[in-house]
Amino acid sequence: MSEFDELQAVIRRHAAARQAEQRACEAFLNALYHALRTASGPGLPLNNVTLDFTLDPTVRLRPPPNGSFHAAWLRLGLCEVLVRVRRLDGAFQGEYGSEGVFRLEDTSEDALLTLARQLLRDVGVAYGAALVTESHLN
User: Fold this and answer.
1) What is the reported pLDDT for 46?
2) Cα separation, 60 vs 44, whole angstroms
3) How far apart are CA 77 and CA 2, in angstroms?
4) Are the CB atoms for 63 and 84 separated by under 8 Å?
5) DSSP state, 28?
6) At what angle do helices 109-137 and 15-37 cross, to 10 degrees?
7) Which end of the chain is more exposed for a tag (fewer CB within 10 A), N or C?
8) Maximum CA pair distance of the chain?
9) Which domain of life is it from (predicted)?
């Protein structure tokens, strides 16, 4: 068997695990989207939140190997934030924006709401910090 044939066999053998990981990460991103829609509190949905799955810009192989990040753009009104997530040791580990990171072992509604609110705060700080910096330059 040639090295090429071995590579094809390995890719085929791990296809089911890769697809399961992708479905789990996409389900997590979808749950985060729903948490963002309700992050303002009961009865106060954020109607201008949308979700767009995308290829992770850092993945250099297709199909992505097990353990790779899966990504989505979350549109939050006038801005968008890239959220990347992967499964690692039974938890969801991810990053968002320029510096936000998270690790969730519990994907309960409360845990996702806490993450959604933190994401909103961090994105707000990022834009607020840019405005403060500009005002100091004038």
Assistant:
1) 76
2) 40
3) 52
4) no
5) H
6) 70
7) C
8) 68
9) Bacteria
Task: Tally the residues of the chain.
Answer: 138
- Tokens, residue 23: 């479905």
Q: Which long-range contacts (CB under 8 A, 24 or more apart) does 12-16 make?
A: 14/66, 15/63
End-to-end CA distance of the chain: 68
- Give the C-alpha separation, 7 to 58, whole Å: 22
* Per-residue pLDDT reduced to its tens digit, 58-96: 989 888 899 999 999 999 988 999 999 999 999 999 999
| Tokens coding 5 | 């044939």
Residue given tokens 């959604």 in the structure block: 116
Structure tokens given for 117: 């609110």
Is residue 108 packed enough to be buried (19+ CB in 10 Å), middle (13-18) or exposed (0-12)? exposed
Model confidence pLDDT, tens digit, residues 103-134: 999 999 999 999 999 999 999 898 886 554 44
Give the whole-angstrom CA distance, residue 77 versus residue 84.
19
